[in-house]
Amino acid sequence: MRVLGIEGTAWAASAAYFDSETDEVFIESDPYQPASGGIHPREAAEHMAGAIPEVIERALVEAESVDAVAFSRGPGLGPCLRIVASAARALAQSLDVPLVGVNHMVAHLEIGRHRSGFANPVCLNASGANAHVLGYHDGRYQVLGETMDTGVGNALDKFARHLDWSHPGGPKVEEAAREGEYVELPYVVKGMDFSFSGIMSAAKAAVEAPSTGNRDSKSSGDAVDSGERVEDVCFSLQETVFAMLTEVAERALSLTGSDELVLGGGVGQNARLRGMLETMCEARGASFFAPEPRFLRDNAGMIAVLGAKMAAAGDTLAIEDSRVDSNFRPDQVDVTWRGEESVSRPAGDGEVVGAEAVVEIGDVVRKRRLAKEYRHPALDERLRRERTASEARLTSLARREGVPTPVVRDVDPREGTLTLERVGRADLSAELTPERVRELGRHLATLHRAGFVHGDPTPRNARLSEDRLYCIDFGLGYHTDEAEDHAMDLHVFERSLAGTAADFEACREAVEAGYREDGEPAVLERLREIEGRGRYR
Ligand SMILES: C[C@@H](O)[C@H](NC(=O)OP(=O)(O)OC[C@H]1O[C@@H](n2cnc3c(N)ncnc32)[C@H](O)[C@@H]1O)C(=O)O
Ligand SMILES: Nc1ncnc2c1ncn2[C@@H]1O[C@H](COP(=O)(O)OP(=O)(O)OP(=O)(O)O)[C@@H](O)[C@H]1O
Ligand SMILES: [Fe+2]
């Protein structure tokens, strides 16, 4: 199969030629560079209009023959997408070959899968406009977790703009971070979702005022002093944001039971991010793969490679059905080029390596949050201490409210250790029936009424016994009466179901039915709203 791929979702006007027989990929790109500020959609489209025909021409020179034309159908900037689609349609028609419409984010994932040879990896996409973790289940790439606000590259670019640095800011932040030292910034992970806006405001505020020169008087907590050195804030921004991405990637590996991770997207060119992911995977015996930079940043090579797989599966488009979709989500794609395999977790006993902790299961359960090598030591110490303390406190509080939880026998937040009663005979994930899931819905409603959230409700954080369902692992829980936070708790659970459950719809109805029995109707309405926000915006 020989495929001509075209990419132009935002800044990279790119065309590529892929020959699946030799596995060679020839890429021609012409980037758009804004004169000032960030990417202007109109200017970007003007760039595409001029550059797309030229890069196609150069790629065609390399092409011996073309069996299909593939193009990025979305997500991206509408005006840019339309130019690319027109060019692709015209080319497919003039060459009289099929047209293939590729989801750009799935292409960022598939290029890693293709180059690594991994069968069934979890994928972290860290790009400009997006940030999410994908896992394959039920014939789709499920979004296991994603940003609640901006993409990770956009967050870095905006911070750089605040410093009057030119676009793109990511590489400049990386450069400045080399000389930096750690200052504390907010850290926001909810289940496998995460948010950058609070961190970015804190980072901007931190560099606002001129330095006082007194570096010993920093306050702790989420408050950040202004007047920090730019290189220190850049360093800490990377330490914080990339630790969040690495943590959610690890959670996804733990939830799905996969031991393969691939990285995609332009921010994947960052050496610190790659290093953290590598270290995390090594520590848990997983394999990590990041494609070379030409396949990480936006490029038509990944479009051609996925286009070839789709064309081989007969997944082509009639011209009249080839509309672009600027909000095209990866989980909307019907994965026609793969089998029905899904990552599922073998039930284990003895010592369990969770996402966060090593859990020894004997007469009692000993949970140790060991230091994570990938994190900066100061951030690592803070997270382990805070989460261990929360887990002990909320586990006991939940039981007093009537939700079954293990008795906490001992806790040492400084060491990050807990000793817990052993409860249940299996994780809920082992027998995921609607009836059991409904019980979890009731438990969540009870917690919320009591004014706190679990923080990470998944089928692996609930334990089955004959007569009850225990909730465990409250480390990400916190006190809140906000409907948004309560709805987010349910959303985290439903997402983890979508990534693992055999009968997702029945389980989702069950958790909501259980919640309705004791919870606020406003929370379920808010849940619908959260889902309707797509990527929360
Ligand atoms: C929809 C599509 O248009 C969009 N594309 C996109 O965001 O371009 P991509 O090439 O994947 O990523 C660009 C981002 O990658 C960042 N970046 C590039 N090199 C970096 C580095 N060394 N460190 C951190 N960020 C870097 C840039 O600052 C910029 O924000 C996407 O994939 O979300
Ligand atoms: N009190 C307990 N009784 C019985 N089994 C337990 C108990 N606590 C934990 N486990 C088992 O250990 C596994 C991991 O525990 P836990 O979820 O607390 O660790 P974790 O590292 O936070 O995991 P993750 O973040 O991946 O959910 C659970 O899925 C469960 O099977
Ligand atoms: Fe991209």
UniProtKB/TrEMBL annotation:
Q: Which residues are involved in binding L-threonylcarbamoyladenylate?
A: N125, A126, S127, G128, A129, D157, G170, E174, N270
What are the alphabetically sorted keywords of the record?
Acyltransferase, ATP-binding, Cytoplasm, Iron, Kinase, Metal-binding, Multifunctional enzyme, Nucleotide-binding, Serine/threonine-protein kinase, Transferase, tRNA processing
The note describing how and how many cofactors are bound reads: Binds 1 Fe(2+) ion per subunit.
| Chain residue ranges for the region called Kae1 | 1-337
Cofactor(s) recorded for this entry are: Fe(2+)
Q: Name one GO cellular component term.
A: cytoplasm
Reactions catalysed, semicolon-separated, are: L-threonyl-[protein] + ATP = O-phospho-L-threonyl-[protein] + ADP + H(+); L-threonylcarbamoyladenylate + adenosine(37) in tRNA = N(6)-L-threonylcarbamoyladenosine(37) in tRNA + AMP + H(+); L-seryl-[protein] + ATP = O-phospho-L-seryl-[protein] + ADP + H(+)
- Compartment annotation: Cytoplasm
Q: Where is the Gcp-like domain?
A: 24-304
Q: What is this protein called?
A: Probable bifunctional tRNA threonylcarbamoyladenosine biosynthesis protein
Q: What is the lineage of its organism?
A: Archaea, Methanobacteriati, Methanobacteriota, Stenosarchaea group, Halobacteria
